[in-house]
Amino acid sequence: MRVPLLLAAALCLGAGGCAMGPMAVQGATLDNVQAARAATPAPVAVGAFVLAEGLPKAMDRSIAIRAGSVTAPGGGSFAGYLKTTLETELTAAGKLDAASGTTISGELTQSSVATPLPMSRGLVGARFRVTRDGKVLYEKELTASDEWESNFIGAVAIPMAMDRYTALYPKLVGVLLNDPEFRAALRRP
Predict the structure, then answer these.
(1) How many structural domains are present in the chain?
(2) Quick one: residue 31, left, alpha or beta (phi over 0 = left, psi -120 to 50 = alpha)?
(3) Residue-by-residue DSSP string for 123-146
(4) Contact between residue 150 and residue 120 where contact means Cβ atoms under 8 Å apart
(5) Confidence band (pLDDT; 50, 70, 90) for 77?
(6) Which site in 11, 78, 104, 159 is 20 to 30 Å from 52, CA atoms measured?
(7) What is the CATH number for 17?
């Protein structure tokens, strides 16, 4: 009698905390604002951000974390969330201008979270493109990843995974803003 009761309690603890919703909208980060100021001599526009061709559409709408799922804010897409994150950083740096002839666009290529014991992992990737007056100056796929200690208890592990996954978006923008090839492309006449 004791063993089934203990097993039921363990299952409840492991599966608890499964109710999730949309990701939090993030503010600008100091590191990315400084990187944007250093990377872009003149303000730039932000163009379309979409899911890369050939990938399942569901990958752009939600991501499973154990028994729950996380969605992009406002019922949008993760590609759109990446665009908003980039716009937030550029705006805070004073480097966003919708009328600029130089445009940054992108395609979401990777999005995953795995929460096995003992370590959890998250990954976000995108192919970024910089164009000026229709000419491609830069095109490169970049990724941001994170690894953290997992927890058996779902009520702890799931919110932690959601927070760490959400933080990958500004981290990926930072990878872009600090990429020497990206910076060189923006400095070309």
Answers:
(1) 1
(2) alpha
(3) EEEEEEEEEETTEEEEEEEEEEEE
(4) yes
(5) very high
(6) 159
(7) 3.30.160.150
